[in-house]
Amino acid sequence: MIILAVESSCDETSVAILKDGKEVLSHVVLSQIDIHKLYGGVVPEIASRNHVAHVTKVFNEAITNANIDIKDIDLVAVTKGPGLIGSLLVGINAATAFAFAHNKPIIGVNHLIGHIYASSIENEMKFPLLALLVSGGHTELIYMKDHFDFKIIGSTLDDAVGEAYDKVARTLGLSYPGGPVVDRLAKEGKDTYDLPRVTLEKDSYDFSFSGLKSAVINKVHNLNQKGEEVNINDMCASFQNSVIDVLISKTKLAAENFKVKQIILAGGVAANKSLRERIFNEVEGYEIVIPSFKYCTDNAAMIAAAAFEQIKHEEPTHNYLVKGFSTKD
Ligand code: KG4
Ligand code: ZN
């Protein structure tokens, strides 16, 4: 089963071709980060215009790299949401046009499910499992009894983890996206600033990161007012430790209570080196699966991997209306 998948929910234009959800025949990701960096974050209108400008080129490159004939493609998969409406529509229109022109069936894939199934490209999913999904827009603990059986057991009440990283980075005068920069600088610093660990009620699987973000902003403001310098590396280390302490304690609690076999780390923040290391070292008794860096941030390979499983639960269509298109979860 050869699947061509398209992902364009935010600021990456990506097309991938996978065989049986695992063998990556081609994987092209065109990032717009350098453009959005100038504005300190993703500008939706600019993102959609850039998807329009590059989507055909990315399609062609993916098909050429895969070294296959278009007639060998069995299915087209495309991210149907959540994401930025203009960005999503470019990918959906490109995918449906391609499917229509070549008479292929098409299926819409939820972006978050894509992030979870990124782990199935290089590993086997073992149920029951717990997925810690940490991205720019989402922070969720998801329990899966089986394939395509999802139960969200906890989520953020305010900021997503990636969003908190990006906002803290901006406060510290660091570039967008904040996650990779904070991750790098934290390695050079020490956890010297006293920041809160917000765990909410006992036994809650929900998260809250806006208090931590405000604590960093207030500390920086107070130090500035006193004319004292902020040690950026130490602030990054303190913030990152606080985030990861909370992520790990909630993951441990959920894994224990739900008696899972495997824990999957998913989403852009799963690229965080310290989180990857600490979850391996501190969460014992479960198989821990973390996708390679290239499958953590937004990419179309994860959409193809999810589609490969999704078609066992949902019929792809030939009517070229992507079922369930939505900018929301
Ligand atoms: O999954 P993703 O590519 O896009 C969304 O679906 O949101 O995640 C992007 C988020 C950004 O907030 C970015 O700062 C964060 O992932 N991120 C990281 C790292 N690399 C990317 N956060 C922490 N550490 C990293 N190394
Ligand atoms: Zn994402």
UniProtKB/TrEMBL annotation:
* EC number(s) recorded for this UniProt protein: 2.3.1.234
- The residues the record assigns to binding Fe cation are 111, 115, 298
Q: Does the keyword Repeat apply?
A: no
Outline the extent of the Gcp-like domain: 23-304
Catalytic activity from the UniProt record:
L-threonylcarbamoyladenylate + adenosine(37) in tRNA = N(6)-L-threonylcarbamoyladenosine(37) in tRNA + AMP + H(+)
Instruction: State how the cofactor is bound.
Output: Binds 1 Fe(2+) ion per subunit.
One term of GO molecular function? tRNA N(6)-L-threonylcarbamoyladenine synthase activity
Q: What is its main location?
A: cytoplasm
Q: Which UniProt keywords apply?
A: Acyltransferase, Cytoplasm, Iron, Metal-binding, Transferase, tRNA processing
Positions annotated to bind substrate: 133-137, 166, 179, 183, 272
Q: Which GO terms describe its cellular component?
A: cytoplasm
Q: Which cofactor does it need?
A: Fe(2+)
Q: Name one GO biological process term.
A: tRNA threonylcarbamoyladenosine modification
What are the subcellular locations of this protein?
Cytoplasm
Q: What does this protein do?
A: Required for the formation of a threonylcarbamoyl group on adenosine at position 37 (t(6)A37) in tRNAs that read codons beginning with adenine. Is involved in the transfer of the threonylcarbamoyl moiety of threonylcarbamoyl-AMP (TC-AMP) to the N6 group of A37, together with TsaE and TsaB. TsaD likely plays a direct catalytic role in this reaction.
Would you identify the family this protein belongs to, as annotated? Belongs to the KAE1 / TsaD family.
The protein depicted here goes by the name: tRNA N6-adenosine threonylcarbamoyltransferase
Q: What taxonomic lineage is listed for the species of origin?
A: Bacteria, Bacillati, Mycoplasmatota, Mollicutes, Acholeplasmatales
